[in-house]
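Entry type: protein chain
Record version: 2
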Amino acid sequence: MDIGCGWGSFAKFAAERYGTKVVGVTISKEQVELGRKRCEGLPVEIRLQDYRELDEKFDHIVSLGMFEHVGVKNYRRYMEVVERCLRENGLFLLHTIGQNNSTHYTDPWIEKYIFPNSMLPSVQQIAAASEGLFVMEDWHNFGADYDKTLLAWYHNTEKAWPNLRGKYSERFHRMWRFYLLSCAATFRSRRNQLWQIVFSKNGPPGGYASLR
């Protein structure tokens, strides 16, 4: 199960590389349409479905870059849905941007122009939401690398801008530059983090071997 599957990129990768059968859910009709086209011929099902409606068992569950849009008041419900749908010997991978301090809001500019209704979780908020439901097997922070990723996106955008200028306004260009560079600064200053967290229900026999 891929919760918040987006445009189907992970589902396509998992099916092509590992022969995995994947069910992805999203509430975006546009993502469903493109995701189904991209995964055509693969053992992938892309559904237009709210994750809270899920009530079936899966061997493993992943969620990549979606938790930032759940909202702190829904964290516990989110974890309960995952626990309900994860098989007893399964693993759950939560991939999310996070921040050092617990808040209940996001940056006003990001909220208005980029990610409405978004919020970055803290370690404490994730731990509280998962307490009593999972064993935390691994918590990998590679936030420092995300600075490089954002700068690569920035340089690629600038290089391609002569070909994009006819499709997007100069105002959009300035906003996109500000977004990428300001976010890169938050990771370079280590204010924001990028976490990949592995949970199990009761702990795999013999323990979990971390992959780096």
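Comment: Strands lie at 2-3, 22-26, 44-48, 58-64, 86-99, 135-141, 192-200.
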